[in-house]
Structure formats: C-alpha cells, structure tokens
Design goal:
Length: about 160
C-alpha cells in the first residue's frame, strides 16, 4: 500500500501532462487560448500586444529558437503565407530569449540572428521576443505552432503549417 502511494505521488509531481492539466495555463484544442502579453514586439504596429489585440482575426503563434534549423528554414514560406492572407491572419513569431541549458538570458544572439535572416531573406514577419510562454506552455522542441481562431479559441497545435 505504501509503495502504491509513493508511486502515485511520484506520478502526480513528475508527470508534465498531469501538472499541466492542473494549471490550465497551456493551449488546449477547442478551448480559449490562455491570455498573454508580449512586451517586446518588433515589425508590428505595436511594441506591446496581448491576445485581445488579435480578436476577429486568425492568429498563428510560431514558437522558435535559434537552434531550430527547421524553424529557420521555413521563415520564407511563413512570410509568403503572411503576405497572402494579411487581411485574415496574423502570424507572430515568438523567439525564445532564454537558455534552456543555463536558464539565463540568451537575448542578443537570437535578435542578431533574426535581423540577419530578415534582411538576407527579405522577410517581414512580426516577432515577439519572449520566453514566458515557452515556460508557461512547457514547450520543449521547436517548431511549436498554436493556431487561434478569430474568437480566441485554439484550433490547432502543430509543428508545421504548409
């Protein structure tokens, strides 16, 4: 009996999906997207945005980090998608500004990388530099994409949009 109790306690405390279910601060398909505020946004009409700023349009949150080759390789296609559907969809890149290995700010390298790519590839994608949602949503691997409908409901969580 004691071993079962210990097993259940370990399962409770060390099972990420169970702890997420208890928090409710992560995206779930068919449910309202958890609120957020990005306070460091570039290449958008505002430098600080929240979920409410995207009401009545589709929102694609495209989480990436500077070590993700797949993420970097799809920026041009993502930019084309944004241009084609600019009146109906807003794509917001979310660049990870921390270090998953040292847990300190890794802010400068990702900013420099995005700026180089933006100029070289002629892309015009909005970007939020933020690690808060990475941690809140417990995002490990990238790309990680959350698609939110015009009413604020999460419609898809995926690793790519074609």
């Amino acid at each position: 009996m004691k071993n079962k109790f210990i097993f259940l306690m370990l399962l409770f405390f060390f099972n990420p999906s169970f702890s997420q279910q208890q928090k409710g601060n992560y995206p779930q398909i068919g449910k309202p997207c958890p609120g957020f505020v990005f306070s460091d946004v570039q290449y958008y009409q505002k430098s600080k945005v929240s979920l409410a700023d995207f009401k009545n349009q589709w929102l694609i949150l495209d989480f990436w980090n500077r070590y993700c080759g797949v993420c970097l390789g799809k920026f041009q296609a993502t930019d084309s998608l944004q241009k084609k559907f600019s009146n109906q969809v807003r794509i917001m890149l979310v660049g990870y500004t921390g270090s998953q290995y040292t847990h300190h700010s890794d802010d400068k390298p990702i900013r420099e990388l995005y700026e180089k790519l933006r100029v070289r590839l002629h892309i015009d994608l909005s970007i939020a530099y933020d690690s808060v949602l990475f941690h809140q949503f417990e995002i490990g691997a990238c790309p990680y994409i959350v698609i939110v409908d015009p009413s604020g409901v999460v419609r898809s969580i995926t690793t790519g949009v074609k």
